[in-house]
């Protein structure tokens, strides 16, 4: 099946790797450790539009990433969301939240302006997510 990434997701995130089902991307916002999983399927807006085995795989990848981020960051809470109101392409946010972060205890959406990652922090976060990828392959 063909896969085209929505232009907003491409603009706001940094490519990390292709997993079994999803493309893993890092959100370009220094305020939060925030990754996205995007099923590599065209014209999918909702998880129920995936085949059953793909839905199972999607949530496995979400859970694996959430567990990894919890361990790596010591997050107080892992937020998982698939809103899609601004970007219709199915994508799942996996965000390591801390009581000290810029939006706590509220949601990250609508909390101030994104602060782009500097080169150093981008490399640190990409390396962390590459460790995740290496661990699930």
List the helices and strands and how they pair.
Layout: H1 7-12, E1 13-18, E2 22-27, E3 33-39, H2 52-73, E4 77-81, E5 92-97, H3 119-136
Antiparallel strand pairs: 1-2, 2-3, 3-5, 4-5
Total count of strands: 5
CATH C-level category: Alpha Beta
Low-confidence stretches: none
Number of individual domains: 1
Tell me which oligomeric state these chains represent: single chain
Question: According to CATH, what is the topology?
Answer: HIT family, subunit A
What is the CATH superfamily? HIT-like
Query: In DSSP terms, counting alpha (H) and pi (I) runs of 4 or more, how many helices?
Result: 3
- Based on CA atoms alone, the radius of gyration comes out at 14 Å
**What is the H/E string?**
HEEEHEEH
Residues in helices, as a percent range = 25-40%
- What would you call the structural class? alpha+beta
CATH architecture tag: 2-Layer Sandwich
**Average of pLDDT:** 95
In terms of DSSP E residues, the strand content is 15-25%
Distance between the termini: 22 Å
Major beta sheet summary: 5 strands, antiparallel
Strand order of the largest sheet: 1-2-3-5-4
Query: What global shape is seen?
Result: globular
Explain this structure.
The protein is an alpha+beta fold. It has a single domain, classed as 2-Layer Sandwich (HIT family, subunit A), CATH 3.30.428. The protein has 3 helices and 5 strands; from the N terminus they run αβββαββα. Strands 1-2-3-5-4 form a 5-stranded antiparallel β-sheet. The protein is globular, with a radius of gyration of 14 Å. It starts with 6 loop residues before the first helix and ends with a helix.
């Amino acid at each position: 099946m063909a896969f085209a990434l929505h232009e907003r997701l491409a603009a706001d995130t940094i490519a990390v790797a292709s997993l079994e089902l999803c493309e893993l991307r890092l959100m370009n916002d220094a305020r939060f450790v925030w990754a996205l999983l995007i099923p590599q399927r065209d014209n999918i807006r909702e998880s129920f539009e995936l085949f059953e085995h793909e839905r199972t795989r999607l949530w496995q990848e979400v859970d694996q990433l959430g567990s990894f981020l919890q361990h790596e960051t010591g997050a107080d809470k892992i937020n998982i969301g698939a809103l899609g109101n601004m970007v219709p392409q199915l994508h799942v946010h996996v965000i390591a939240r801390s009581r000290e972060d810029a939006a706590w205890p509220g949601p990250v959406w609508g909390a101030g302006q994104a602060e782009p990652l500097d080169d150093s922090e981008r490399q640190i976060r990409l390396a962390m997510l590459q460790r995740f990828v290496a661990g699930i392959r």
